[in-house]
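The pair is set out directly below:
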Amino acid sequence: MSTVSMTCPKCGAPLKRKNELFFTHCPYCGVELAFDEIDEESTDQVRKKIVEWKKMRDIYYLVLGVLSFLGDVLMDTRDFTWSLVALVLTGISWIMFIIIPIVMGAKYPSYNLLTNKEDKAARVKKWAELVLISLCVITAAALAGYNVAGFIKSRH
């Protein structure tokens, strides 16, 4: 991490900020500073963080869907062991549904590349998006699992 040396525009104190940070405050006079212009390297860092975040989101949706699907397929079995496995899989998917959006929402970069400013609501928007899409994934996987279980049951 490289740092940029600068002076406070209010009190003239020497300041150092990390290159990837776009907001800081002066420890001497307390003035808050925002940097509207960011260099290409910092922009690339934000883009990379967003790409990494999207990969993790896609993996989360996939795992959530698979766990929900398998849980619903196995839930309808008459065997106690498989029913227990189904209960554990369904429980894990619901725990993931509660915890992962909070963690991933907090990790989303809050810098808006289009406006070159910090978007304080970006993380809340991504959290809401994660929750809504997760509900859709769980519902679709559960319905598919229920239908597959019914199909399997009708064949026996």
Q: What stands out?
A: The beta strands are 3-7, 14-18, 23-25, 32-34, 111-112, 117-118.
